[in-house]
Structures are given as C-alpha cells and as structure tokens.
Amino acid sequence: MTDSTEFRTARRRYLLVAGVAPLLVAVVAVALMVSWLPEVPSTVATHWSGDGTPDGFAPAWTVPLGAALLSLGLAALFAVIMLTGTRDGRWGPNLRLLAAFSIGTTVLLDVCLTWSLGMQRGLDDPAEAPGMLLPVLAGTALGLLAGVAGWFAQPAVTVSGDRPAPTVEALRLAPGERAVWARTTTMARGAKIAIVASFTALALGALVVAALGSPVWWAMLATAALLALLACATFVFRVRIDEHGLVARSPLGFPRFQVPLDEVQGVAVTMVSPTAEFGGWGIRVGADGALGIILRAGEALEVSRTRGRRFVVTIDDAATAAALLEALSERARERRH
Amino acid sequence: MLIRVDPASETPIFAQVAASVRADAAAGRLRSGDRLPSARDVAASLGVNLHTVLRAYQLLRDEGLVDMRRGRGAVATDAVEPLAQLHHDIEALVARARALALSPDALAALVKEMYR
C-alpha cells in the first residue's frame, strides 16, 4: 500500500471511530431518554453531592438535549482537530489515540446521562434519586471498553511524509575556536489564541458557577489561573547551543530542558507536524517517545541522545543550530578518545 | 544568532563578536527588531569577560546596527537591512557561480582577491 492510500484509510477509520460511532451512541441514548420523559418527574436530579444525594435539579427535557449537544459538539471537535491537523498528509499513533478517546468519552458521558434519567423513572420526588456511583462505574468501564475497541478498529499507520534522511554538515571550527548559537522560538499565534480562549472559557465558567452560588467556583478559577500560568510559561523558549550543550528555557526560568554535549549522539533538521507527530502544541511527548517543545509546524532541530529520549524543538535557522551542535559534539567526542 | 570567537586570532575578541553579529545580519539570521542574546549569556557561553561582549555591543551601537534599551537589552535596528539584502546578492552570486560550475573555494578566493 502506498502512503497516500494508507493515509486515506486511516483518516476514514478515524472519522468512523471519532465521529460516526459516537453519533450513533448519542442517537440511541437520546431516543431512550426521550421515550422515558413521560415516566420521569418533570424536574429531575442532574447533580449529586459528594455523599451521593442529589443537590442539583433541572427540567427533565434538558438531559436528552444536553446529551445531544455534548455528543454532537465532541464529535465535531475531534473531526475538526484531525481534519485541520493532517492537511500535510502525515499520520501518527497520536491520532489513533485521539479517535479512541473520542468514542470512549462519548460512551462514558451518554451512559451516565441515560442511566441517571432512567433510574428516576416512576419517582415522585427527584430528591429520592439513588446515587450515581454505579452509573459512573459502569460508564467508565463501558467507555474504556469502547476506547480500546476504537483503538483496534483503526489501522496502525505512520505516514511521516517525504522526509529525506538528513545529514548535517558540521560547522567548520578552528581548534580553539568558541561559538554560541542562540535564538528565541515563539508559539504560533493560532495555538496561542486557542489556549488563551480555553482558559477564558474556564474562567467565565467559574464566574457562572459563582453566580449560581456553588462554592466550587474559587477552585475552578484557581485551576484556570494555574493552567494559564503554566501555558504562558511555554509560549516562548530561548534556545542556546554552546560548549555545554543545548539548553532551552522559558523566559521565566522554568521549564528548562538541556542536553549536555556528552549526550549528543546525532543531530538533524526536521519538519514537524504538531498534530500527527506530537498530538498538539506545547511540551509534548511524541508517538515514538521523543520529547518535544512544539510551538509551531515546520522547521525543527532534532537531537538524538546516548541515553534518554530524543529531543525536538521547533525553531528557525535550525540548520545553523544543527551544524554548530554537530561540530561541538564531534569535538567533545574526539577529546574523550 | 551565531557568534564565534577564536582566541588564537590576531583580531581582538570584541571585534570578533561584533563581526559575528554583522555576519549574522548578512546571512539573514538577524533582522530588524530581533533581540540579541544578553551579553551575560554570550559571555558565559563563550567563556569570555562580560565587558568584552558589552564592548562589542557598544561598538555595534555606535555603528547604528543595534539599539541598547534598558530592560530590553540590545535590539537590531533598521540599519541591519542593507546587510540582510547583501544576503540576497550572495545567494544570486552563488547561484550563478554554481551554474557556471565554479567551485565554492574558487569563488571565495575571487571574492577575497577583490577585497584587497
């Protein structure tokens, strides 16, 4: 099979597992819930407190509506992630995992919602609704099962595109010559906007929860602030190559990654496809275990190490960086012998 | 940004640092508005005195290639653009030399000759 037919097969299966299958699950769940509407109280329990007693209520029709909207939204989200992320014709195991995650999540969600409504049939007072422990356990088990099935329903395909085996020519250095290469790499604007938007949504959600009078709002807001801080710390990295090796650090000083010169085994310039190879943007672990600082698509410096995982950082002028790192590590190797 | 110094060379270290920055601009690696790495980092990486690097940055400032701003460090000015355009001329020259089957060493020798 050629790469492009493999790619098309993988993509079709992804859409089946991440889009079509969840929608079918949602159709069954919503149909069941709608058929039960005459049997449940007009207001049903929709939220349970930590000790298992219902503490949140809503009109019964909102449950099937919520299930339909959530399932549709998730299926659309996972389809869009894949379709926009694989326009360059590359594919990897991360996408397979993403599709499995989509079907698993939808099954968990729809089982819990359907069960929560089903167990309130024949009740007069929704406050008498039983706890959610059993439905959540069953939903988790079925979700995991669906996820595993979704994983195996897809082919194991890796299409890395036309990447020629890169050979880096070492920079010519005089015997005592010293050199440093330094550059700043910044996250792509689109990824930045998406990340900031998601935290804003979380913060707004916290405000809504606060307005509803629930005490968990401050925990949500704190989580949003913490995640935002962590994300901002990974928007910009300063990368430096010198006698000590390679260092990439955020302007805040943390996170910081380094590859000592002694551990450099090989250096390459590669083209990175964030979604296919690393499943997204930020600090990422790739399909084959590579550790990546993936701030945008395109040119990247890749360092294989004598021990530990490969290190990849997306950066401009990677050719010069690679040439210098190659020269310095060659010199370090000669010095050791 | 690639900065290289050879202690064995007769050219003073600070002049070598400044020459590296000019070469970076000519290679298209340093554009107007780009921030130079901090003098402290460069000094630590090259194992030279901080004042040597600062002297180089001051030389570049006197030439108008960089702007020194408090808190922002050294930033390349519009004056690097002519050097960046030289990069296009060099690309064109190399393309012509390659088309005429002239070796890189021969071309470099001709350029050096011309400089005298």
From TrEMBL, chain A:
Pfam families linked to this entry: DUF1648
Keyword field: Membrane, Transmembrane, Transmembrane helix
Keyword rRNA processing belongs to the record: no
Keyword Metal-binding part of the UniProt annotation: no
Domain DUF1648 as annotated: residue spans: 25-63
Database matches in InterPro entries: DUF1648
Membrane spanning stretches: 14-37, 57-83, 95-117, 132-153, 193-212, 218-239
Protein name: DUF1648 domain-containing protein
TrEMBL record, chain B:
Domain of life: Bacteria
Transmembrane intervals: none
Keyword field: DNA-binding, Transcription, Transcription regulation
UniProt cross-references to CDD domains, sorted A to Z: WHTH_GntR (cd07377)
InterPro entries reported for this sequence: Tscrpt_reg_HTH_GntR, WH-like_DNA-bd_sf, WH_DNA-bd_sf
Domain (HTH gntR-type): residue spans on this chain: 11-79
Protein name stated in the entry: GntR family transcriptional regulator
Species name: Agromyces lapidis
